[in-house]
Here is the input.
Amino acid sequence: MPLPNLVHPINVTIQKSNKASTVYDADAREPIRVVRREAITISAQVSMRRTSPDPETGGLLSERVAGYLIARVKDLDALSYSPKIGDKITTIGHRSVDLYLSQVEDLAHYPGQNGATLLKIYFEDRRPASDSPSMV
Here is the structure.
């Protein structure tokens, strides 16, 4: 059975986080400064949306950008890349962005493929706690 194709794939540049080189606060056991590795470029299908303030909270939340990427497992394996929560998206197509991976989900389980053939990679514009500077 053929592998699924992406609909209108574009290049997405992602910087992997380097947990081994990240500086941690020994007392609080939290990162002070996250070190990023080299950037890699993957081909993915992108879906972005803006979330509006929630009227139940009085509209106090600011508008956020969130969405997901659909990427082929075969393409990511060829790049030796496995998406991790906290990795940073720096460009989508020709636009510079500041987005962070928040969840990874398996999709498209076909017979004879030994698992998922696509990954759904969620992202948000919020900075993850592991990337925030320490509030000492």
The mean pLDDT is 79.
